[in-house]
Write a structure and sequence with these properties.
The complex is a heterodimer of chains A (220) and B (99). Chain A is 61% helix and 0% strand. Chain A is built from 8 helices and no strands. Chain A has helices at residues 2-22, 26-46, 50-75, 85-107, 128-136, 140-161, 170-177, 188-191. In chain A, helix 1 runs antiparallel to helix 2 and helix 2 runs antiparallel to helix 3 (50-75). Chain B has one domain: Orthogonal Bundle (Helix Hairpins), CATH 1.10.287. Chain B contains 3 helices and no strands. Chain B has 99 residues and is mostly helical. Chain B has helices at residues 3-23, 27-52, 56-84. In chain B, helix 1 (3-23) packs antiparallel against helix 2 (27-52) and helix 2 (27-52) packs antiparallel against helix 3 (56-84). In chain B, 59% of the residues are buried. Classes of the chains: A mainly alpha (220), B mainly alpha (99). At the A-B interface, helix 1, helix 2, helix 3, helix 4 and helix 5 of A face helix 1, helix 2 and helix 3 of B.
Chain lengths: 220, 99
């Protein structure tokens, strides 16, 4: 039974990984990665890492994948780029050579445990209790460092992705401003008649031109 | 199943990711392939934790997941910034990073 689940999960994980690399549309790549992550969580469960498997599904297949899907939907698939002529041949060759080398290094390492099923299982191995105890005692410093890293990454992403003046081409900004708005929407200044409304709707209260300069002194 | 099987699967996943990083040109897909490489390393860490019967490898795997999440956040922020500036989303064209 363990063998069946292992081979199913391993085939799923490798097929998902191949799908990420080979599919041309980035959206399908993201979906393939989600399938790969769920298969990997099954492998983690077989290795008695319950908490890591749960975190994998919740954090990766949940949160990170949603982020990816949002960005792919925002940016769009883009034109389908063919890889360069040299790397298209050399890349898979390099990957194959690396795979053979890694397998030789891992399996021929002389570690006795590699050809066994691992240490005898004790109840509670990999449970949240054990992981939490280790995080708050032996690995307290990496734990705090990880929290600072997450904070820095969040702030950095906001700074990187925010809209900045002067960096975008002018015509795109003008086009964005001149986009017709639905009727009965607008700013407070337009509603009060201080700034003439740009809307095409004649019912908009600010459609009439501003009469006198004294109206322009409003405090908005 | 022997630990060696898990290590083989992790090596294969790592190498698929490495090949993807080399051959693909879309930064989004390159980030996905980096995730694949990190996941291969994670699988090896968890397998070794099972081999020794200690949870230290699982702690490492969780920290790697945190690092991967941070990397994805910043990388996707860069992709969105590139898209906003109407630059081509192609790593061969984007060979200089300056504000």
């Amino acid at each position: 039974m363990t063998q069946v689940i292992f081979f199913l999960a391993a085939i799923g994980a490798i097929a998902g990984a191949l799908g990420v690399v080979l599919l041309r549309n980035p959206f399908y790549s993201v979906l393939a990665l989600a399938a790969h992550l769920v298969s990997l969580a099954a492998l983690f469960l077989l290795l008695r890492a319950e908490f890591v498997a749960a975190a994998q599904v919740v954090v990766y297949a949940g949160a990170v994948m949603v982020l990816y899907v949002f960005v792919v939907a925002y940016v769009g698939a883009g034109e389908q780029l063919a890889s360069g002529a040299v790397l298209r041949v050399l890349g898979p060759l390099f990957a194959l050579a690396l795979a053979i080398e890694l397998c030789i290094a891992l399996l021929g390492s002389g570690l006795k445990g590699v050809s066994t099923k691992g240490a005898p299982y004790v109840p509670g191995f990999g449970s949240p209790k054990h992981i939490g105890t280790l995080f708050l005692t032996k690995y307290l410093f990496p734990f705090e460092l990880a929290s600072i890293l997450l904070l820095v990454a969040a702030v950095g992403a906001v700074v990187l992705a925010r809209r900045r003046r002067g960096l975008e081409p002018e015509e795109t900004i003008a086009a964005r401003i001149a986009t017709p708005r639905p009727s009965f929407t607008g700013t407070m200044a337009e509603a009060a008649g201080i700034r003439p409304s740009r809307g095409d709707d004649p019912l908009a209260p600010g459609a009439q031109p501003v009469s006198s300069a004294s109206d322009q002194q409003g405090g908005w | 199943m022997n630990i060696g099987w898990y290590l083989t699967v992790s090596a294969i996943i790592f190498c698929i990711g490495a090949g993807g990083v080399l051959t693909r040109r879309n930064p989004l897909v390159i980030l996905l392939c980096l995730e694949l490489m990190l996941n291969g390393a994670n699988l090896a860490l968890v397998a070794f934790a099972r081999m020794w019967g200690t949870e230290d490898g699982q702690i490492f795997a969780l920290i790697v997941m945190v690092v991967a999440a941070a990397e994805v956040t910043v990388g996707l922020g860069l992709v969105v910034a590139i898209y906003r500036r109407r630059l081509p989303i192609d790593v061969d064209e984007l060979n200089e990073l300056q504000g």
